[in-house]
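Q: Predict the bound structure with calcium ion.
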Amino acid sequence: MTVPGVSADRSPRDGRPARVLIVEDDAGIATQLARGLQIAGYETSSLGAGRDVPGCPAADVVLLDLGLPDVDGIEVCRQLRARSDVAIIVVTARGEEADRVRALDEGADDYLVKPFGVAELLARIRAVLRRRRSHDDEVLRCGDLAVDVRACKVTLKGREIAVTPKEFGILECLASDPGRVVSRQDILDQAWDAHWYGPMKGLDVHIAALRKKLGEPKIIETVYGRGFRLADPR
Ligand code: CA
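A: Predicted complex:
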């Protein structure tokens, strides 16, 4: 729930108020955190144990206690990071350097030692969302297809697809404006050297290879006489 009339930080995914999942077995602390976050305009949900976290509905930020009754928080952090790029802030009484290092190495974005003030927690949430947002600007998305321009990485439904530099260039070109027809010459100009006037047959070979690698040939539509278009693979 959120408190009406308060403007929250927005989710980098869909522009809605950001969603915070609180993983905390101390009901008093969980309630207090939820209240502070809701007053600041965030949507919250809570879990009192670690086992349900990896399958939990999408959140933008997870506040993760390490001392959980069933699974150690570090293990939860590891499992969560293996399947999601959600922002994870560890919120714990364990303040040892070794704990901080382990949590950060297992994928936590930030680490906050109890007790802390709500203002600091909110500032840290804003900071991780800001970092996510600037990172997301470099990821072109079309349905389940993500083209990470910074890391030169292509994933489909979370599965990484190994592509050649030219194939990556073609996908980057198409994914920069999904649904728009991109002419063969435009693709060649952007993915090959600019002003490339050679035969265009090479492009078809690369497109065919890409369709095969993606496993869903319909993602790249041929628009006869005009070029290619990226279709929503869902
Ligand atoms: Ca605890």
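A: The first helix runs from residue 27 to 39.
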